[in-house]
Amino acid sequence: MIDINLFLHYQPPADLLRDRIIVITGAGDGIGKTAALTFARFGATVVLLGRTLAKLERVYDEIEAAGGPKPAIFPINFEGAAAQDYEQLRSALANEFGHIDGLLHNASALGARTPIGQYSLSDWQKVMQVNVTAPFLLTRALLPLLQKSADGRILFTGSSVGVRGRAYWGAYAVSKGATETLMEVLADELEATSVRVNSINPGAVRTAMRASAYPAEDPNTVTPPEAIMNRYLYLFGPDGKAVHGQQLDAQPKA
Ligand SMILES: NC(=O)c1ccc[n+]([C@@H]2O[C@H](COP(=O)([O-])OP(=O)(O)OC[C@H]3O[C@@H](n4cnc5c(N)ncnc54)[C@H](OP(=O)(O)O)[C@@H]3O)[C@@H](O)[C@H]2O)c1
After folding, report:
1. pLDDT of residue 253
2. Which of 72, 112, 168, 203 could form a disulfide with 251 if both were Cys (CB 3.0 to 4.6 A apart)?
3. Residue nearest to atom 14 of ligand 1 (CA)
């Protein structure tokens, strides 16, 4: 079980993630970018996955300029990536590091905000591919490397609409529901291993995706990604070792 108070108010030591190798998807922007910068600041070697190379390079440069451990970049578009692309990633990471200690499934497509009656098949397939099939393929490819870690972690990213569906959230809501189920299946399968598996719902966070979903909202009223990072650090560091198979809210309602 998780100590919610400790999780929400966690004060990480400066070297929390030293010597840990953590793969982050969607690391070029939003929450993933902030996670990459934060994990590197706490000592992790981060592997930056995303579809826009220029964004990944900017994160890489920022980490280097801050004196963090040298990151790695692997550009990948989850919309079109095939099983062999994931195998290629696994062999590149196996050659470079031999193992990994963490995998943050963070990249997602929002898709259209339209009723199911008008939802296009192509949009549906794209959202399910990026949000469900890609995390499945990535998990399957990287699991052998995570199982070589003494303390492996997988964190999926959920959403409130994946727990309770709401009108006009379409495939995004369905994909986030599937994400929770994938997390639970995997957590059950890995119960007796050294890999811990959970999901986190970031809550409302000031990013491009949030602005796209809520165009009329003043971004200054929304929590910045930095404010929830101590909860991500808790789950990827040694203090989060006992947490397994849980759906966590980074910003629980009071
Ligand atoms: N922000 C919120 O309020 C909120 C609330 C609940 C849940 N979430 C979840 O939190 C996670 C992060 O969201 P965010 O708000 O940080 O979103 P964001 O700012 O839009 O960032 C999403 C990241 O995913 C990447 N991505 C999207 N499609 C991709 C693809 N086909 N292949 C590879 N990478 C792809 C994007 O790459 P590019 O930059 O190259 O486009 C971007 O780096 C998501 O899982 C989201 O569902 C967010």
Report:
1. 81
2. 203
3. 30
What band does 1 get if pLDDT is binned at 50, 70 and 90? confident
Contacts 24+ apart (CB under 8 A), 5-13: 6/234, 6/239, 7/231, 7/234, 7/243, 7/248, 8/231, 8/252, 9/230, 10/230, 10/231, 10/233, 10/234, 10/239, 11/230, 12/42, 12/230, 12/233, 12/234, 12/237
Band the pLDDT of 33: cuts 50, 70, 90: very high
- 56: number of Cβ within 10 Å: 25
Q: Environment class of residue 134 by beta-carbon count within 10 Å: exposed (0-12), middle (13-18) or buried (19+)?
A: buried
Task: Report the alpha-carbon distance of residue 20 to residue 99 in Å, rounded.
Answer: 10
With respect to residue 248, please indicate whether it lies within any of the assigned structural domains: no
What positions carry a catalytic annotation?
172
What six digits make up the tokens of 37? 């910068």
217 is a domain residue: yes
Whether residue 6 is contained in a domain is answered as no
Task: Report how many domains make up the chain.
Answer: 1
Residues found in the chain:
254
Q: In the prediction, which pLDDT does 127 show? A: 98
Residue 8 in any domain: the answer is: no
CATH code of the domain covering residue 221: 3.40.50.720
Ligand 1 centroid distance, CA of 88 (Å): 23
**Which mutation among 29, 59, 206, 209 tests ligand 1's pocket best, with the greatest number of atoms within 8 A of CB?**
209
Owning domain of residue 53: 15-242
